[in-house]
Automatic annotation (TrEMBL):
Organism field: Microthyrium microscopicum
Family of this protein: Belongs to the paxM FAD-dependent monooxygenase family.
Domain FAD-binding, chain residue ranges per copy: 7-374
Domain of life: Eukaryota
Any GO MF annotation of the entry: FAD binding
Membrane spanning stretches: 564-584, 604-626, 638-659, 680-702, 735-753, 765-788
Family matches, as SUPFAM superfamilies: FAD/NAD(P)-binding domain
InterPro entries: FAD-bd, FAD/NAD-bd_sf, FAD_mOase_fung
Pfam family, one: FAD_binding_3
Lineage of source species: Eukaryota, Fungi, Dikarya, Ascomycota, Pezizomycotina
Keywords: FAD, Flavoprotein, Membrane, Oxidoreductase, Transmembrane, Transmembrane helix
Protein name (record): FAD/NAD(P)-binding domain-containing protein
Length: 819
């Protein structure tokens, strides 16, 4: 039996996807022929195309990217403009989402030059056959036969349909599959639809349109996109909503006369205040006027046939995803074909082997492709103001433009395919956010799943709320408030009822202040000792929450407003309230949110002032209220300390305003710049906390024992006097606060372990926790645990991150097909 059979692939279509696949197969050492229906490989048509980071990495692997860079222009500035051409936002967020994180810019250029570049990169151009209009496809027992209208026929082992949105290969695949899966075929025949149409043009750049400028124009039911290209070129797109949604064969094609009418209709659209569509049209070189089809088909493969690119996933062009999605699919298909070649033992590959690989190719790509189609369509609708939701979404994007746009694009690029049999290019492993096939669009961790996993926090809330009930103590407080005096063991101390001279505010704090008087006035030495230790430990929790609040990954989450939780904690007990903070933080902050190093980054100016802020607003008032020489002075400090969540916010805001905010540059150049400051702050507070802990424990050992200070004798609700209630309430407050904190840290370390970012065993982590609490106290333990996680996030990458050097051999092909 012969063992030197050379597998052959037939590629239908000589566009972007077909030529990328041809280059990929050539470099895999797999024989192919490419059938192109036109009589030239790079026709001059009015379209442009962008190489985005997901596509650029594959082009880089193929050795095409450098040449394409010479032909194209990198995107520099992203503008969004209203229908008068006025700027709504200007951001470099695209640059952040591109080269800073992935290693690649957005390179925009003419489609015809793109095709020429791909074609010229091929070593054996005799495999490219022009004027080959496919007539019929037949499957045999041993392969697939493609017959063309000129009478020629070609036999191969696999047929790749890269022939675009009106794919002949897809039609033939439906015909062959119809007898076995008629419902699927019927669905796909009617699945494609168009809600928008667009004119694409290439022109001489009008004055003011600079290379790298990208202008998006917003209006009702229409929008524009203009890109300033290289060599004084500009690329213009005009989008308009159709009167009705068209489907399948009813999607219209347009005449030249209709294109002229379309341009006339929108000639007054202002790209910029002094620049209209009419100004572009005066300089137009060539153009295309088409409907914008959208669809992801169910049937991608049948037998030995696989469709790829626009023939199975067609999207609107507003985010430039279509061509790059096609390049990704070409890479995934090439990986599958390579696997078939390597596993056919030198013989003609069996139909079963081919089908297995092609089905895996579809499984590998369809969810991500569907996410791209959906997202591209949503951007089209957002820019054309299709609904209230889309208008609202557009406004939300502009609240945090540099973050939202960069994060949106980074999530899109993150999980991109690459050629598994070629090493990752050097550029792709040096960015702040490595490519990761287990993350990104369609692979986001479920927030619902995280919410279910975090249900123990709700249980902790209900338990704390039950244990730390205040119902029985309220009747004890009422006469004290009326008499303006705190009485205990025949001793009466004046109770201050005014401080802020704002009655509602003073009325809030007076009854709460009574709970602190046993410690402040020395009624209960145990309570005094425990509360002092709690204040030191609590400061570290406040610092952790404060650092989380300015983390870029926590934008638009509840973690941004820690003051809400600390303020409620002052009113009800932080042990009761903290589970809500931890629940919401855990749900909204998976590790994938910080796959980009700059997303871990916080504001350096805020980090620099946090330590003095906490000293001024929490530590000094907290300890002054215990040690001030007069009782009235202690009450004044108590009133001041009770409002520390507000003072922290205001003081940090004022102090940080005197220090330049370097976030915009740090996210590009130094995403770990805040880490030394964070370490210093948490380290300093941990030193204070552990010192207080050691002093407290030493003092307790000489008197009543450590357990008596930190462990309650009973439940607060069973106390018969307010002093006992206060001691047990604050003891439980500390127990629940740090119980919740350690559960939260366990969840965060669970995430790190699942991501392969730490290898420490659970038994070791538990040992570290117990040992640290006993020696240094719960506050220091929490601070050091959180700081450990912070260091891991700053210096370690997810286990699936593609960070190998180009010299290392990839094993992704086997995983791609078999997993």
């Amino acid at each position: 039996m012969a063992t030197d059979y050379k597998m052959r692939v037939i590629i239908a279509g000589g566009g972007v996807v077909g030529l990328v696949l041809a280059n990929a197969l050539e470099q895999a050492g797999i024989d192919y022929i490419l059938l192109e229906r036109r009589d030239e490989i790079s026709p001059t048509i009015g379209q442009s195309i962008a190489a985005e980071p997901n596509g650029a990495r594959i082009l880089d692997q193929l050795g095409i990217l450098d040449e394409w860079k010479k032909q194209g222009q990198a995107l520099i500035w992203w503008y969004e403009r209203d229908n008068n051409g006025e700027v709504l936002l200007k951001t470099d967020g695209v640059k952040l989402g591109g080269s800073a994180r992935t290693g690649y810019d957005f390179i925009f250029g003419e489609r015809t030059k793109y095709l020429t570049t791909f074609y010229e990169n091929l070593k054996d151009k005799s495999k490219i056959l022009l004027s080959k209009n496919i007539k019929i496809v037949e499957e045999t027992d041993s392969g697939v036969v493609v017959k063309c209208e000129d009478g020629t026929s070609y036999e191969g082992d696999i047929l790749a349909g890269a022939d675009g949105v009106r794919s002949k290969v897809r039609e033939e695949m439906w015909r062959l599959a119809n007898s076995q899966v008629p419902k699927v075929v019927e669905h796909d025949r009617n699945a494609m639809f168009a809600e928008y149409r667009a004119l694409f043009g290439i022109s001489e750049a009008p004055p003011g349109i600079l290379p790298g400028d990208c202008d998006f124009g917003y209006d009702k039911n229409r929008s524009t996109l203009v890109f300033g290209g290289a060599r004084n070129k500009a690329y213009v797109f005009i989008f308009e909503k159709l009167d009705k949604i068209c489907r399948g064969r009813d999607i219209p094609r347009f005449t030249k006369e209709e294109a002229m009418a379309f341009v006339k209709k929108h000639s007054d659209f202002k790209i910029r205040p002094d620049l209209t569509i009419a100004d572009f049209w005066k300089r137009i070189d060539n153009y295309s006027f088409v409907c914008l089809e959208e669809c992801v088909f169910k049937l991608w493969t049948w037998g030995r046939i696989a469709c790829v690119g626009d023939s199975v996933h067609k999207m609107t062009p507003n985010i430039g995803a279509g061509g790059n999605a096609g390049i990704e699919s070409a890479a995934a298909l090439a990986n599958a074909i390579k696997w078939v070649s390597e596993n056919s033992n030198g013989q003609r590959p069996s139909k079963e082997l081919v089908e297995k690989a092609l089905q895996k190719y579809q499984t590998q790509r369809e969810a991500r492709a569907a996410a791209m189609v959906h997202s591209a369509g949503e951007v089209t609708r957002m820019q054309a103001g299709r609904s209230f939701y889309h208008k609202f979404a557009a406004k939300m994007v502009r609240l945090y433009p540099g973050d939202f746009i960069a994060d949106y694009l980074s999530a899109y690029f993150s999980g991109a395919e690459m050629l598994s049999y070629l090493p990752p290019p050097k550029a792709s492993v040096g960015g702040h956010q490595p490519f990761n096939p287990s993350q990104g669009w369609s692979r986001h961790e479920s927030k619902l799943k995280r919410a279910v996993l975090a249900l123990p926090f709700l249980a902790m809330f209900f338990l704390a709320n039950k244990v730390m009930t205040v119902a029985n103590v309220v009747p004890m407080l009422t006469p004290m408030i009326q008499d303006q005096a705190v009485t205990w063991n025949m001793t009466s101390m004046p109770l201050r009822t005014k401080f802020y001279n704002v009655k509602p505010l003073d009325d809030i704090w007076v009854p709460i202040n009574i709970f602190f008087t046993p410690a402040l006035y020395g009624f209960d030495a145990i309570c005094r000792t425990q509360t002092l230790s709690l204040l030191a430990d609590y400061g570290i929790i406040v610092a952790i929450w404060a650092f989380e609040s300015v983390r870029r990954a926590n934008i638009l989450t509840f973690a941004q407003i820690p003051g809400l939780f600390t303020f409620l904690g002052q009113l009800r007990g932080v042990g009761v309230i903290s589970p809500f903070y931890y629940l919401l933080h855990y749900i909204s902050s998976p590790v994938e949110n910080m796959q980009a190093a700059d997303m871990r980054l916080g504001r350096l100016n805020y980090a620099l002032v946090l330590l003095p802020t906490l000293l001024l607003t929490h530590y000094i008032p907290g300890y002054a209220m215990f040690h001030w020489p007069t009782f009235s002075g202690r009450e004044s400090w108590l009133f001041l300390w009770q409002m520390f969540p507000v003072w922290v916010y205001l003081t940090a805001k004022v102090l940080s305003s005197f220090i330049p905010d370097t976030t915009l540059s740090d996210r590009f150049e130094s995403p770990t710049r805040d880490l030394p400051v964070i370490k210093y702050t948490i380290g300093t507070l941990a030193a204070v906390s552990s010192t207080v802990w050691v002093f407290t424990c030493t003092t307790a050992l000489l008197k009543n024992g450590i357990s008596g200070v930190f462990l309650p004798d009973g439940l607060p609700g069973q106390a018969t006097d307010f002093v006992t209630f206060t001691r047990e309430y604050l003891q439980f407050d500390e127990i629940f606060l740090f119980g919740n904190t350690f559960i939260w840290l366990a969840y965060l370390f669970w995430d790190l372990k699942h991501a392969g970012m730490i290898k420490t065993k659970w038994i070791q982590l538990v040992f570290y926790l117990i040992s640290s609490v006993l020696v240094m106290g719960p506050g220091t333990t929490a601070g050091l645990g959180w700081l450990w996680r912070e260091t891991v996030l700053a210096n370690t990458r997810h286990r699936d991150a593609v960070i190998r050097s180009p010299s290392e051999k990839s094993d992704h092909t086997e995983k791609m097909v078999m997993n």
